[in-house]
Design a protein that fits this description.
330 residues; alpha/beta; 2 domains; ten-stranded mixed beta sheet
Length: 330
């Protein structure tokens, strides 16, 4: 069985602040020298209030204080992130339009193929922001208290456990399908219109298993309405320090989401380098890193080239999972 770990060494090491890059404006193309000449529009392809939206807003404040121009967050939800992504693909490549990108983009590519643009080819990677992790939760009535017991129970009752997710092709389903692929168990996927409705049905006992974002499930876990079995992070989470990592039971099972920044293709490299340096400086700031922990993630310090390699590797990994689960567009 292949190791489908999404953990990358490049996300774990610290990148020195690029002080030389922060001094951009002394050379290079005139367009890069003048940047930013007006407010920067940062498109978040999801509704306000979620983790990605909060992350963009705190990062936008950091950037605005150092760029001398406002960073305006614009929420453009729709089609699992495709609406907002396409808006940035079509935008002028002058550094004044950015995309809050993430694993959802590579999942869309794996599921939908040609959607009018090529995420990997039509956008320029800028920087990583955060890696996010999942937690395996069950309804308390299920007679399992560990990941090993869940696997054993599922093998003894093939197809009888409902696996809730936030929708067909959602990251929750992908994490669950990867678990099924690596353990050989049979769970019945039940898609909902978002994580909230799925969690509500989990609490009601209509579904028994879910691979949810850690921050979304945490209140239900703390209230005893759901039982947490394991986290998908390589190490134990500071939010649930007593909970084991899933990889302790299923070696190599470390599914993770990621959130980062992309810009329209052909954005001047000087602008991309400056943004990357500013964002990586934020990720190494103790107060900023503490906010990431509160959001259930860890800093993702990468260069633009490394982010490009993450995108390519993710796309291939998700294609394998999509093929295994026979996921089709709605």
């Amino acid at each position: 069985m292949k190791n489908f770990s999404m953990t990358s060494g490049i996300a774990r090491r610290r990148i020195p602040a690029l002080t030389a890059t922060l001094g951009l404006g002394l050379g290079g193309p005139a367009s890069a020298q003048a940047w930013p000449a007006r407010p920067v529009q940062w498109i978040v392809p999801f509704p306000p209030g979620g983790v990605t939206d909060i992350l963009a807003r705190i990062t936008g404040q950091w950037l605005a204080a150092r760029l001398g121009q406002p960073v305006i967050i614009e929420n453009r939800p729709g089609a699992g992130g495709r609406v907002g992504t396409e808006a940035v693909v079509r935008a002028a490549p002058d550094g004044h339009t950015l995309l809050l990108a993430g694993a959802f983009n590579t999942i869309n590519t794996a599921i939908f193929g040609n959607i009018g643009f090529d995420f990997a080819q039509d956008l320029a990677p800028v920087a990583g922001l955060m890696r996010t992790f999942y937690v395996v939760v069950t309804h308390p009535s299920l007679p399992v208290r560990s990941l090993a017991e869940l696997i054993a129970y599922a093998r003894a009752n093939p197809g009888r456990l409902n696996m809730a997710s936030g929708g067909n092709g959602s990251p929750h389903q992908i994490a669950g399908e990867q678990f099924k692929m690596m353990t050989g168990i049979d769970l019945t996927h039940v898609p909902y219109r978002g994580s909230g409705p799925a969690l509500n049905d989990m609490v009601a006992g209509h579904a028994q298993v879910m691979f949810d974002n850690l921050t979304s499930a945490l209140p239900f876990i703390r209230d005893g309405k759901l039982r947490a079995l394991a986290v998908s992070s390589p190490a134990r989470s500071p939010l649930l320090p007593d909970l084991p990592s899933a990889a302790e039971t299923v070696p190599g099972y470390e599914p993770a989401g990621w959130v980062g920044v992309c810009a329209p293709k052909s954005t001047p490299p000087e602008i991309i380098s400056r943004l990357n340096a500013l964002i990586n400086a934020a990720l190494q700031d103790a107060a900023f890193a503490a906010r990431l922990t509160e959001l259930g993630g860890t800093a993702m310090l990468v260069t633009p080239a490394e982010l490009g390699r993450v995108i390519a590797a993710d796309t291939e990994r998700y294609r394998q999972i999509v093929a295994f689960a026979a996921i089709r567009p709605d």
